[in-house]
């Protein structure tokens, strides 16, 4: 399926590894030129170099901390030609209310929650003025069924789900679509660390409805579709990709 993304420009945050790197790869495969943002500038540039060589697309890297207002403003200005924004940066730690102290909670939300919202605040008016654009927020299935053991993450994801739905219900009036993706467990570096720490992790994954966890590319393919005109009538919607895990509970 041709997603008609060739020649379009996208800004992807958290693009140096994991789901963000996979999203960049998929968009580059579709011929999309890219702005890639992350804190690790060296890893980001290494990934960008490979994308340029393999797919012949233009890739600009931005080493930024999305918790820092000046970095956000610099990124938004430098990526002003992007018609697609993929918010992906951030990883809120697990733990109960007692486990996740106020400093840790705020530090995580400054990146994953306020980082998304503040970047959208800078990008959305520009897309609205142009009359076209797409914002895809990669959130997390923990927001659909919050638990006490993932309280900061579940609450943050639920907030981003509400934010996405609210803006996604208004954006199409101005030609801008806003959608969200809620991944369940995905085979990223975080999962690799968990597996190394406990052999019980794989047993838990085997008990999932699908018998496995997602590959980053599967999430990336969904993001690319939602960013394309093939999904032109979808806005204000959160799409869950978790192999049936949320539905099973």
Instruction: Summarize the biggest pleated sheet.
Output: 7 strands, parallel
Calculate the mean pLDDT score and round it.
94
User: Percent of residues in helical segments?
Assistant: 40-55%
Number of strands: 7
Morphology: globular
The neighbouring-strand order within the major sheet is 3-2-1-4-5-6-7
Q: What's the N-to-C terminus distance?
A: 33 Å
Give the helices and strands as they follow along the chain: EHEHEHEHHEHEHHHEH
> Number of DSSP helices?
10
Class inferred from helices and paired strands = alpha/beta
Instruction: Please mark out the parts with pLDDT under 50 across 5 or more consecutive residues, or reply none.
Output: none
Please describe the structure with a list of short key phrases separated by commas or semicolons.
249 residues, alpha/beta, 7-stranded parallel beta sheet, 10 helices, 7 strands, 47% helix, 15% strand, oxidoreductase, NAD(P)-bd_dom_sf
